[in-house]
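Re: the multi-chain job from yesterday

Posting the exact lines I submitted so nobody has to dig through the queue logs.
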Amino acid sequence: MSEMDRTVLEEIANSIVGSDIERVKKLVEEAVTKGVPPIDVINAMSTAMAEVGRKYSEGDYFLTDLLVAGEMMKAAMAIVKPYVKDEPNIVSGKVVIGSAEGDIHDIGKDLVATFLSSGGFAVTDLGADVPAKDFVEKVASIRAYIVAISALLTTTAAGTRAVLESLERAGVRKDVKAIIGGAATTPALAAAVGADAFGKDALDGLGICKDWMAKRPRAI
Amino acid sequence: MNSRERIFAALEHREPDVVPIAPYIGWYSSVVLGLDLDDLSRMSMLEQKIPAKGYIPRWRSDLEAYRRLGMDAILFAPCSAAKNTTRESFKVNRHPRGILIHKTYDTPKGPLTEELVCLAGKVGVDNRKYMIDDPEDDLEKVEYVLGDPTRIDFMEYEQARYQVGDEGIVAVRCNSPMAFWLTMRGMQDGLLDFWRRRATVDKYMKMYGKWIIDYISACGDYQVDLIFFRGTYDGYTIISPEDWKRYIGEPLTRASREAGVKIQYFLEGKCAKLLGLVRDTGVNCLGPIEPPPQGDCDLAKVKSEIGRDVCLRGNITPFELELASTDKVEKIVVDNIRAGAHSGGFILSTTDQITLQTPVDNVIALVRAAKKYGKYPIMTQ
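And the result, structure tokens for all chains:
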């Protein structure tokens, strides 16, 4: 990578952290048209998203900053995507994500999906108020390695249990790692419903999923 | 002491006979009373969205559940401001997922609409269209929809107050500016607007901040038991402390100093850094004081920091209550009482609604333990 490429990538990352969407779009456009490998651009954006997540976790940034970073990520990915076809190793794993049945909130779930996408995961977002059977069907059909279930309300957190029980009944629970998160969830609930992990925020969730992928047993 | 005296003693920092027990009952009353969840849901939605004839107010089911569980009732009564110049109309239709409600407000500045689905068999609503569509254009219309804060219909409050008698108190809900904005604009757009159109958000916050001062003052004039100031989105993962001071702290301080009415600030999420600021607003009560991971509060620390000035209402999490054995529930209650109840100024509560899956035996164990170990003077060891 040339010094000039490195500088552009740093500027992209700094612009994401600084919430400057127009500059991000301009720099990303410049980078990919000048031949900077898309994977390098995506990695730079991913690093910036992790920095935004870290600042949020430490109380320096707020939910709006996370949402803005997510918007920038989406806008930049739309520019990068047409150039991605020659990059075979861009996806690090398949994740099915959704809000538990009865829970119509999707803002936290959307943020996690954005962070996972920025971390190289292929994310299938089922949306909000998702019946357990829909999780099962999608996990089985795309052979996802991770299922992520969000619940914002204490009244709907039981839906996370329903998803995991349905996965068990369908015989696919053993093939998939399950993470729960959202304002209504706790580590104790995760343990009680049989999830493999609890994500305290989007960055934490991304870290857990990356860790799973790194430790995933390989067929070859 | 009766329940009413007990709750007021706690709110006024006097020692009651025993710690008041007032968790958020919410949808759990369907479990206690054997009500169909859809019926209860319809009651609540109709109460909030449509002035339908013949509905049963939610506070009635809450009161009955509090009675049967032997708790001290803190009920909510909806009290709306008069909308003299705005006509409200409703269309209600069946929807594959429940009941579709389309609501129109014809204001002198033009119409505002919202659309939501009350989900069948579930406890939430799905907002399909939020009221504020074009923030720049809708500001004046929203002022009309809020109505005249000096002219409030207290009929529902009065009925609840009469029915609850000495068994508890009745609270009037008032959204904090963040809850107002995000409820009317939607969470995603509402938060992104802090970045996209900050000056416009500022206008809404200031307009609503002035409105709540007048609204709470009118409630004070009527001598309502309690204002429940709903700060669902006021924690500092959502709003910065600087914005909290400007948009929430300022109007709340004025309202609590000028209105002469008791206020519980329901501040959800992370708020440990805001405790001093909350105390300085002059509110009487703070809850739910959420522990990690949702919040960042340790009840004993909160008690030592602001417990002399502010009554605390908390802080058993619904999942602790749902997942624990009855013996563990007793221990949780004892720990809570020891951490927060000494010297008065404490109401034992959950941090959110009791979950529908919580065994009734656990709730009964909570009440028994609170009555056994919550007698004043409280032993801290």
